Automatic annotation (TrEMBL):
Span of the signal peptide: none
Domain Mandelate racemase/muconate lactonizing enzyme C-terminal: start-end pairs: 150-245
Pathway(s) annotated for this protein in UniProt: Carbohydrate acid metabolism; D-glucarate degradation; 2,5-dioxopentanoate from D-glucarate: step 1/2
Xref: PANTHER family: D-GALACTONATE DEHYDRATASE-RELATED, GLUCARATE DEHYDRATASE
Reaction catalysed by this enzyme: D-glucarate = 5-dehydro-4-deoxy-D-glucarate + H2O
The protein's Enzyme Commission number: 4.2.1.40
Organism: Kribbella hippodromi
Region (Disordered): 384-404
Domain of life from the UniProt record: Bacteria
Protein name (Swiss-Prot/TrEMBL): glucarate dehydratase
Amino acid sequence: MKIVDIRATTVTMPLEAPLRHSNGAHWGRFVRTVVEVEADNGLIGLGEMGGGGQSAEAAVTGLKPYLLGHDPARTEALRWMLANPTASLYNNRTQLLAAIEFACLDLQGRELGVPVHELLGGKVRDKVPFASYLFFRHPNEDGTGEIRTAEQLVAHARELVDQHGFSVHKLKGGVFPPDYERECFRALAEAFPGHRVRFDPNGAFSVEEAIRFARGIEDLDNDYLEDPTWGLNGMRRVRENTPIPLATNTVVVNFEQLAANVRDPAVDVILLDTTFWGGIRPCIKAAGVCETFQLGVAVHSSGELGIQLATMLHLGAVVPNLSFAADAHYHHLRDDLIVGGKVPYADGAIAVPEGPGLGVELDRDKLAEYAELFRELGPYPYDRDPARPDWYPLLPNTDWADPS
């Protein structure tokens, strides 16, 4: 095969309610860019990346001089063509590379009539378990959907357990004062005896606050404490002062940082993200390093629609040392762009796709519908809170939202 065209379409996908995090909020929707790579045999491979608008579409289509005529099976060459580490100092294309890699793997699988996991060594599991990714939420315009109190949090988690069968629960924190969030987290854990929990304030705590927070939850059945503070050295100091394993998706996101963590451990569990690391194949390489040095591995979520979800499932299918349930924002979506609509959970897990390539098909009507919605609504600032327009966080943060 040879690549003959590449296209990008930015969409916005409504959420059940605005999701709050330590840097601001998802304003009731995700903005994603769908990438299509067309080969000379008429097949089209699908990719997806976060963010979007004219700039993302221009960045993707700007890769045409690199990609036209390239064999999509030569994915290792793509890494050097698009994301050479010295050239990337001037133009970091890691997430662009990821979207192109997804599409090229999809093309290979479609051409051969096999799922992507067969191209990556073959699956070792048929389904990937997921955690109930929980957020504090702003209310919708009609007043519904708010999660601000421990009671609202537990009620929402119970709905998700009843609907999807989750037995692992992750709470995104860093929004309200740490003592308040700790009590909400404890209420969540105590409401589901026998379930496992994890907490993630996105690096918003000081080292000292992170240690204090950890000591207040050490009696719970914690998978890990994710990014309680910022930076490898800060994480190392916290790790020295708590028996809870530490996890990250922010301070170990490439092989240089992974090497530094192996030489001088600061993090116990690496959350691999198929976009942050530049594709599925780099994540598998990183998982191999983690297997060698006995570091834990999980799958990170960066706000996926069905195309990227498929990449997470194929990654989860082939990594033998995936010892934790994956994260996914997916159950917060109101809809999806793939044929058949949202992929279902069963007993807290999602089945690995078995169709050729990524195993998902693009619903052209949905693509047009949500591309038009993006044109109507435009982007939103991920690192701002619509309820606090003049606020922005510091690291470590001390200016918390008022839970009352």
